């Protein structure tokens, strides 16, 4: 019912002449779009490969491995999954949320027509944000952006308690919000951030006037599933990503940019965790606000890794982060580097169990085999340049330590003779026997050369 009402708002704006002048001739524009669609393959738009193109279909090489991780479960945002029957349940709620947001906007003296006037001139920029040629008309696209954008902002406001929540199933059913949060961070389920920002400025107001920023509202909403300290998130309250997935990804990336290291024989992928342990590398959980903050101390040979709480939400998030970094060339590859690093450490279930015993990995997926399988999947068929990675110094340091002969021999000795209480007791007994034998030999030789009178 509310969805039909939102459609009526847009139609009335168009019929009443409030639609911007350049977009009035919808029929001609529709014909031009159809011609363009016939000329250009649907899977590749003319803007694909440019910095403006930031919302992608997940590559088949990645999607075939774990298709469910990239598909929305209950919510469709943007054009890629628009009209999917399995996702139609939330469409009615979008209209209700739009109605609530419009009511507050009108209280501030902002009408619905201002939304249309703000978003319609961005149509070309919106289309250039998607890697596929969008085979939908001008009016339908603008309507979609407004409806989805208003739904997202109103959802953020209701959940973060910026407005008084009303009786709504989306907010009262326990399983609903986790699924909505996950769907809002799927790569194929995004709308451009500049669309959200314009709607937010009209609906809520600018942060320059004392209001919260869109990034603050979004990060606090997503933090319900992440539970990071607010002081950590504050550093990103004025950041703008390409879309919500990119914004949330930036909140994990350390301030230092990815370094570039000269190629050496030690700059290569590392050995699995148990092999490194045998070679003397020590593993220690690290207290950090970002799971990317990995350090290696060369003197002590200690690899400090932030605790990773691997559950369904974070596993889906990591997969979509990596997919975005693989598709969008104009961004750092921090998550891809991290996934490759952890995938090498947890090459087998035994390696995953080893890190779990060291309190580095908290497994909520279902066992060591699932953890090892996940990291083997996430690092498969991805482009990775170790020389430009932010962990290049860690790769180099660990391999240099691993190749040190003294470290390996001493660690192997400790592993052989001091790994268990029984091996330690056996080694101690052998040492005592050796000492007694040496003492006995000494006295025998002494008595021979210096006999008693």
Q: How would you characterize this protein structure?
A:
The structure is a single chain. The chain is mostly helical and 453 residues long. The protein has three domains: 2-250, no CATH class; 273-406, no CATH class; 420-449. Helices cover 52% and strands 4% of the residues. It has 21 helices and five strands. It has helices at residues 2-15, 26-39, 60-63, 91-107, 112-119, 123-127, 138-159, 169-172, 176-184, 193-203, 214-222, 230-233, 244-250, 273-278, 312-327, 334-345, 349-357, 368-378, 392-403, 405-417, 421-449; strands at 282-286, 295-297, 302-306, 308-310, 361-363. The strands form two sheets. The chain has a three-stranded mixed sheet. A two-stranded parallel sheet has the order 4-5. A hairpin with a 4-residue loop joins strand 2 and strand 3. Helix 7 crosses helix 10. The longest helix is centred in the last third of the chain and has 29 residues, at 421-449.
């Amino acid at each position: 019912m509310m969805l039909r009402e939102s459609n009526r708002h847009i139609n009335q704006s168009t019929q009443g002449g409030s639609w911007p002048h350049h977009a009035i001739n919808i029929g001609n524009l529709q014909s031009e779009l159809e011609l363009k669609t016939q000329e250009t393959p649907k899977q590749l738009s003319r803007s694909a490969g440019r910095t403006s193109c930031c919302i992608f279909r997940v590559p088949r090489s990645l999607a075939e491995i774990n298709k469910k991780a990239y598909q929305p479960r209950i919510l469709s945002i943007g054009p890629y999954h628009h009209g999917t029957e399995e996702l139609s349940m939330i469409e009615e709620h979008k209209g209700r949320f739009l109605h609530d947001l419009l009511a507050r906007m009108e209280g501030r003296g902002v009408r619905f027509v201002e939304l249309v006037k703000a978003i319609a001139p961005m149509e070309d920029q919106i289309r250039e944000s998607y890697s596929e040629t969008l085979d939908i008309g001008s009016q339908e696209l603008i309507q979609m952006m407004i409806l989805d954008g208003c739904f997202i902002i109103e959802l953020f406001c209701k959940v973060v308690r910026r407005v008084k929540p009303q009786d709504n199933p989306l907010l009262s059913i326990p399983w609903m919000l986790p699924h909505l949060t996950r769907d809002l961070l799927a790569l194929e389920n995004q709308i451009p951030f500049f669309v959200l920002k314009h709607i937010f400025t009209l609906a809520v107001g600018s942060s320059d006037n004392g209001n919260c920023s869109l990034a603050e509202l979004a990060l606090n909403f997503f933090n319900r599933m992440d539970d990071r300290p607010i002081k950590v998130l504050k550093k990103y309250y004025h950041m703008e990503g390409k879309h919500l997935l990119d914004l949330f990804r930036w909140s994990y990336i350390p301030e230092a940019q990815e370094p570039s290291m000269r190629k050496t024989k030690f700059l290569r992928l590392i050995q699995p965790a148990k092999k490194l342990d045998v070679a003397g590398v020590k593993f220690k959980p690290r207290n950090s606000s970002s799971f990317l903050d990995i350090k290696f101390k060369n003197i002590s040979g200690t690899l400090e890794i932030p605790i990773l709480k691997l559950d369904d939400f974070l596993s889906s998030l990591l997969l979509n982060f990596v997919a975005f970094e693989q598709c969008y060339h104009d961004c750092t590859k921090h998550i891809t580097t991290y996934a490759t690093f952890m995938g090498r450490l947890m090459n087998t279930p035994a390696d995953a169990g080893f890190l779990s015993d060291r309190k580095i990995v908290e497994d909520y997926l279902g066992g060591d085999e699932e953890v090892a399988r996940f990291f083997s999947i996430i690092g498969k068929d991805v482009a990775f340049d170790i020389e430009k990675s932010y962990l290049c110094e860690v790769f180099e340091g660990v391999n240099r330590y691993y190749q040190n002969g003294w470290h390996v021999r001493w660690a192997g000795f400790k592993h052989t003779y001091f790994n268990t209480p029984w091996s330690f007791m056996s080694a101690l007994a052998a040492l005592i026997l050796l000492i007694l034998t040496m003492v006995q030999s000494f006295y025998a030789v002494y008595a021979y050369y210096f006999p008693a009178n």
